[in-house]
């Protein structure tokens, strides 16, 4: 027998003079606590009927609507159902066409509903939507009503004027452990403001990389932020500082604090062109738990790779390493590292070799 949600979805679709989506009907039949419609490119017309009846899924824990070309009007319909989804923990709205208008609708859900809404929601992914700077005030309200542990704001059209308003509203990120604000047009000051709202003693994953207006000194701001942790440790596991104009000296200073991050396994320092071989050595010597290191675009590192001895490579736990550089000019260094990787990992070694790129990994 079809579930109530399936029956209502079919009825709602027909009331909109729209044939029910067979693909959606099959997915809804299997829904229990998780509903993923990710990357189906369904569009508003097919998603809208679902948004109207999803309030029947009272046990829903996870809802993934990523990659469906959803616009503000469709999201407004979804907002009418959100107050009933009291068990929802994870909401993924990434890769759609949502603007600040959608966040205004969500804000109204919180401010106009007399009872608590989405009290269990801890993961919110808004990445790759054209939210723009105007969304900041709405995000301020939303984060005050939620106890988020994960907030993804990557590529949401934030720019350097994000905090230009005299009525700037702070975000409540006290509980956040996974934060991503990469791929925005933000500068050092804007990134530093976001850091001021985060507690380093809570952060497990931090992506500040690939923001186009970043200049020298951002890594220094990260170090200063880490100093505010007090006497607590750092639970950091993943750190992305790609394209942050990092220097060797800044990395050396950063490593003073990363040495206490005993769970750190992934560091992305790609496209920091001034980094040299000592940064590679010190990262791996100071952070023995690191298994994934991305140094693509740090072409100066390959110039002195030969100084990294077999004893050095035997002492690290790397499972993946990305390097780039002029490997025609430094062919001997390339050959040395490739042979070392294969020797250490025997039959488990995998090496992708392109003209100016090396990807070392292990067979799964």
Automatic annotation (TrEMBL):
GO-annotated biological processes: double-strand break repair via homologous recombination; replication fork processing
TM spans (from-to): none
InterPro entries to which the protein is assigned, alphabetical: Leu-rich_rpt, LRR_dom_sf, MMS22L-TONSL_complex_comp
SUPFAM superfamilies per the UniProt record, alphabetical: RNI-like
Entry's Gene Ontology cellular component terms: nuclear replication fork
Signal peptide stretch: none
Coiled-coil features, chain-numbered ranges: none
PROSITE patterns according to UniProt: LRR
Entry keyword annotation includes Nucleus: yes
Cell compartment(s), UniProt: Nucleus
Protein name per Swiss-Prot or TrEMBL: Uncharacterized protein
């Amino acid at each position: 027998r079809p579930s109530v949600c399936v029956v209502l979805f079919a009825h709602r679709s027909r009331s909109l003079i729209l044939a029910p989506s067979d693909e959606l009907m099959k997915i809804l039949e299997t829904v229990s606590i998780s509903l993923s419609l990710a990357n189906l490119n369904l569009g508003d017309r097919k998603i809208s009927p679902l948004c109207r009846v999803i309030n029947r899924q009272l046990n829903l824990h996870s809802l993934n609507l990523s990659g469906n070309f959803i616009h503000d009007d469709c999201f407004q319909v979804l907002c009418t159902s959100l107050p009933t989804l009291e068990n929802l923990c994870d909401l993924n709205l990434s890769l759609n066409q949502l603007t600040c208008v959608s966040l205004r609708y969500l804000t109204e859900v919180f401010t106009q509903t007399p009872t608590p809404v989405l009290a269990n929601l801890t993961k919110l992914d808004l990445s790759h939507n054209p939210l723009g700077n105007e969304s900041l005030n709405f995000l301020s309200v939303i984060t005050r009503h939620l106890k988020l542990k994960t907030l993804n704001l990557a590529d949401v059209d934030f720019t350097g004027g994000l905090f230009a308003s005299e009525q700037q509203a702070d975000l409540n990120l006290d509980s956040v452990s996974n934060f991503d604000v990469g791929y925005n047009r933000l500068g050092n000051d804007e990134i530093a403001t976001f850091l001021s709202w985060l507690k380093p003693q809570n952060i497990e994953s931090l992506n500040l990389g690939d923001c186009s207006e970043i200049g020298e000194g951002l890594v220094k701001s990260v170090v200063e932020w880490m100093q505010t942790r007090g006497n607590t440790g750092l639970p950091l596991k993943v750190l992305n500082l790609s394209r942050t104009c990092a220097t060797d000296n800044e990395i050396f200073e950063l490593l003073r604090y990363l040495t206490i991050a005993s769970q750190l396994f992934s560091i992305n320092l790609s496209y920091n062109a001034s980094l040299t071989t000592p940064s590679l050595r010190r990262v791996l010597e100071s952070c023995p738990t690191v298994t994934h290191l991305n140094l693509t675009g740090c072409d100066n590192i390959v110039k002195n790779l030969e100084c990294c001895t077999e004893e050095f490579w035997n002492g690290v736990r790397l499972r993946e390493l990305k390097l780039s550089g002029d490997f025609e000019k430094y062919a001997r260094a390339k050959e040395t590292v490739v042979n070392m990787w294969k020797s250490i990992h025997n039959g488990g070694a995998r090496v992708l070799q392109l003209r100016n790129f090396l990807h070392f990994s292990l067979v799964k």
